[in-house]
């Protein structure tokens, strides 16, 4: 009889500990420090933040759009920017049209990065609002 009571008390204590850990994990706020996203003390990538917010459609939408913008910015700034730079450098007649093309790419990418940052902020706000209300 005492063994059954002890076992029952251990189970109750264990469930209380697990429930307390789960509730504190749910109460952690997501925040943006510089350009990094943190959940508690853990740094997250944009993909991790998106994956954590799968059950929160509004936050998921913002994080997904921010990730897509970053992926395209890598294409615009990385591939096309470097090809324009290398073409300008390797050009025998010193044609400056490739330099103008590189500036145009920069003019496209910078506003997109600003928009991406705003989407991340909106995603964090949506995540915190929905997560803390649950």
Please give a quick description of this structure.
It contains four helices and three strands, in the order αβββααα. It is mostly helical and 134 residues long.
What are the key terms here?
134 residues, mainly alpha, single chain
Account of the 3D structure:
About 4% of the residues have low confidence. The chain is mainly α and 134 residues long. α2 runs antiparallel to α3 and α3 runs antiparallel to α4. It has a three-stranded antiparallel beta sheet with strand order 1-2-3.
Helix and strand arrangement:
Blueprint: H1 2-26, E1 30-33, E2 36-39, E3 42-44, H2 46-52, H3 57-90, H4 97-133
Antiparallel strand pairs: 1-2, 2-3
Helix pairs in contact: 2-3, 3-4
Beta content:
5-15%
Helix and strand content put the structural class at mainly alpha
* Biggest sheet layout: 3 strands, antiparallel
Helix content: over 70%
């Amino acid at each position: 009889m005492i063994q059954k009571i002890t076992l029952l008390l251990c189970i109750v204590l264990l469930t209380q500990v697990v429930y307390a850990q789960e509730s504190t994990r749910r109460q952690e706020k997501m925040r943006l420090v510089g350009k990094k996203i943190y959940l508690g003390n853990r740094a997250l990538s944009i993909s991790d933040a998106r994956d954590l917010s799968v059950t929160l459609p509004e936050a998921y939408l913002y994080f997904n759009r921010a990730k897509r913008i970053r992926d395209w910015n890598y294409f615009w700034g990385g591939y096309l920017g470097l090809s324009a730079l290398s073409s300008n450098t390797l050009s025998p007649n010193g044609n400056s049209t490739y330099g103008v093309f590189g500036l145009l790419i920069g003019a496209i990418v910078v506003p997109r990065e600003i928009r991406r940052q705003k989407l991340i902020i909106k995603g964090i706000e949506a995540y915190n609002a929905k997560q803390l209300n649950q």
